[in-house]
Amino acid sequence: MTNTAVRDGRERGSWQRPMVSRPAQASIISTTMTSSTVRTVLAVVAGDAIFAGGSVLLFYLVKVDPHGPAATNFIVLSIVVGIGLALAGGFVAGIIGNRTDLICGMLLAVIIAVGAIISMVGRSEQGALWSQTCALLSAPAALAGDWLRMKKQGLVSRG
């Protein structure tokens, strides 16, 4: 071989990658996993839209500033409505996510709680934190909503 060096069975200057075929099943699995992940993300976004959208609508309709002082009976009403919205959000997120576990409800509960905590920390010197506290108290209901969805679908054992 004069003037032509061979490297890994290829001639010098030929630096093309060898064609490696993947099994068809691997691409199907990765597509399915991606589809499941996207579905879960969309489910959690929909659940959060139910909780946040309903909360904003409540404050708008009754014309109460969520960052200002409020009457005790309205604060109690906000907690009850917040729990109902988080429960509905978790239930819907579980249905859209179509999973056999509680991950949609867990993610939604964490998002609600973290949002409330961040808002509390950011407004700590500005007084009235009742709406953030209501959201924090409502967060576990998102997980309960997903659990109720699983129970309704027969995915929870009766033991």
Quaternary state of the chains: single chain
Q: In DSSP terms, counting alpha (H) and pi (I) runs of 4 or more, how many helices?
A: 4
The whole-angstrom Rg is 26 Å
Report the sheet with the most strands, covering strand number, pairing sense and barrel closure.
Answer: 2 strands, antiparallel
How much strand? Answer: under 5%
- In spatial order, strands of the major sheet run 1-2
Poorly predicted ranges: none
- What's the average pLDDT? 86
Order of helices and strands: EEHHHH
Number of strands: 2
Structural class: mainly alpha
Terminal residue distance: 76 Å
Helicity range of the residues? 55-70%
Coarse morphology? elongated
Characterise this structure.
The protein has 159 residues and is mostly helical. The chain contains four helices and two strands, in the order E-E-H-H-H-H. It has helices spanning 24-62, 72-97, 103-122, 130-152, and strands at residues 6-7, 10-11. Strands 1-2 form a two-stranded antiparallel ribbon. Strand 1 (6-7) and strand 2 (10-11) form a beta hairpin. Helix 3 (103-122) runs antiparallel to helix 4 (130-152). The protein is elongated. The N and C termini lie far apart (76 Å).
Any key phrases for this structure?
159 residues, mainly alpha, 4 helices, single chain, two-stranded antiparallel sheet
